[in-house]
Design brief:
alpha+beta, Immunoglobulin-like, four-stranded mixed β-sheet, three-stranded antiparallel β-sheet, 1 helix
Length: 126
């Protein structure tokens, strides 16, 4: 790839990241249990312990409970979910534990008590 294409790719990736973070912090009302913004981008070299965070804000009237997290990338990253405001706001933190110099893509599946959205898929891209 030439430098212009690389710069364009990096710029587009940055814009997507910024928009997903903005959508995550705005608390948009939707028909989904949680607000939009379901991708975590991890950027850095392979041996770095890069972390990424995603704030999950409930749009439900009743308290939302995260019942479990299924990590499809458990050999590549660790994940932790923390309640910021129990039943309303959660923070999902992922940390790169892979030492290989290759990128990866996958997802985390969150199980909830919500009838509208019993499973929430969060994509992870490194």
């Amino acid at each position: 790839m030439n430098r212009k294409k690389i710069r364009l790719f990096m710029f587009i990736t940055l814009i997507i990241f910024i928009l997903s973070q903005a959508a995550n912090s705005q608390g948009f009302e939707t028909d989904r249990a949680l607000n939009p913004g379901n991708t975590i981008f991890l950027r850095g070299s392979a041996k770095e312990r890069i972390t990424g965070k995603l704030r999950l804000i409930s749009n439900m009237e009743s308290p939302l409970k995260i019942l479990g997290v299924k990590n499809k990338l458990e050999h590549k990253l660790s994940c932790r979910i923390q309640a910021i405001a129990e039943g309303k706001i959660y923070e999902l933190t992922v940390k790169n534990i892979c030492n290989e110099p290759t990128g990866y893509r996958g997802y985390l599946a969150l199980t909830t008590n919500c009838e509208k959205q019993p499973k929430i898929v969060v994509r992870v891209i490194n």
